[in-house]
């Protein structure tokens, strides 16, 4: 290259390394062009926003590919094409999540803000009451207090049962079993349990309690606790097992070499090292089962008043509440009131699940081993 | 405070595979003994039998006698945990407990065993052990910081401090300097020379100069070929191993004419 060329490039504000690149504004041009063309095409067959967005995206990816091939080379064009496709897949994966959140939030919020929604149950809320509030346009009465109490009690119960069992099982699998028949059998059954349809777990729990306490009285919160435990234990075993396995063997050996017994090593070295992963796994397992509907419906039944006793009487829960309000409105001739309550309850459920997820992240951060601290 | 070790006809197995065969060796108290030999000849394996760490691996077992001041540590009914609190071990890669501070790491052997000690006693143990490991000056102002925040060499000395805090009789070290820079290596070597005033020290090393510098006696292990067990070829005063070895293979190995 001669000095001349270099000066020429410098005049354009470029270096030799960036020569032969397409102008920076190519993407904007492609996007604008795609949008215009898509709008024009859709104008012929009837315009709609969703179709326009999709068509614009497709045209944009195609035109970027073509213009890069022309202005640069095929390798860079292919690279750009895949980048765009990966990004597109990300957006598509995000769409359902965002739209679910938006729908539930926009429809559920008025119901959630209705006075007394979180504090009252459905006792005394008859069809006539709903009919009246819909007719007169007053705020909808009744709430989710009983379902909230039920969901929380049942989930806490299931957690109290599943976490110790799941934790001890995974400790056995990772720390004590030496890959023998017994541990292979446990792993196999845990895998099978992970795949059990939740309604089957519900029927199992209902059936078990029926043989234990007899028909009729077997419908109670505790039956639902058992059903959810059946669903939760394999999840806890699996996630805890994974967390225990990533604890380096060196730490166990370091502890043994200090003359520490095995159970103390597990309790004081292995578990503290992996506690953040274990705790967030457990939290996610809770978030997973709190939304179960079928197994709770067949074990705890439905109720309209708050029941604090897991061992007696039917108990309402949030998912079942939503299901009942949607499918069997309190006032069949004025279902709006029930629908509003159902959406508000759905919002409450989503908020709880989100809080649990946030809690899991917080726990993972708070307990994570401190890596540095100079 | 330090004990003598006698291995009598010791064979070490991984499942069916015999990794080390027929070792007879006597390690004197208050001395530094170096194990040298080519990779895979069973130095680590043999070292780990000295505090019954070998058997924590599935299928691993030992045949023969290993006497610690005359008591067979492989006799039936001997509690491996009791052996390990008498025979401490420092590993090749520094492995401080990541959940613990520097101070807690030093006290780990006591705390993990559930011993209750007063804060004053604990402070004394921490200072004594860290001074013993030549680390006190560097960390005395940051005892409450995580142990994993130290440099590699400092971490290794922290692991040594952790080991001497439980006051064992014997300290085993498996290539303690292989991950360290020359200055940290020197610090650890100085430390080893000090440790032998009180403890029986056994060190595995690939570094001939290191073996020559720190050890009183040297054991040369060798292996006849892959799949064959490693054997103790020659065991003598370090000066003799390096200057006047009796075996041809020892001479080849220490003079770098190996293989
Ligand atoms: N966990 C194990 N399971 C089965 N065989 C093993 C295991 N660890 C080591 N061995 C085998 O035992 C023999 C001795 O290994 P060892 O680790 O004691 O060698 P080494 O002398 O320490 O080598 P290096 O100098 O490379 O550390 C080797 O053949 C090795 O393959
Ligand atoms: Mg080794």
Structural class of chain B: alpha/beta
Mean pLDDT of chain A: 89
How many DSSP-defined strands of chain A?
Answer: 0
The CATH topology of the largest domain in chain A is given as: MetI-like fold
Helix amount of chain A:
over 70%
> Helix/strand-derived class of chain A?
mainly alpha
- Which consecutive residue ranges of chain B, at least 5 long each, have pLDDT under 50? none
Oligomeric form of this entry?
Answer: heterodimer
CATH class of the domain at 5-97 and 169-254 in chain B: Alpha Beta
What is the N-to-C succession of helices and strands of chain A? HHHHHHHHHHHHHH
Q: Sheet bearing the most strands of chain B, described?
A: 10 strands, mixed
List the bound ligands. Answer: adenosine-5'-triphosphate, magnesium ion
The number of helical segments of chain A is 14
CATH structural class of the largest domain in chain A: Mainly Alpha
Biggest beta sheet attributes of chain A:
none
Q: Between the first and last Cα atoms of chain A, what is the distance in angstroms?
A: 51 Å
Overall form of chain B: globular
Tell me the name of the CATH homologous superfamily of the domain at 5-97 and 169-254 in chain B: P-loop containing nucleotide triphosphate hydrolases
Question: What is the topology, as strand order, of the major beta sheet of chain B?
Answer: 5-4-1-2-10-9-3-8-7-6
How many strands in all of chain B?
Answer: 10
User: What overall geometry of chain A do the principal axes of the alpha carbons give?
Assistant: flat
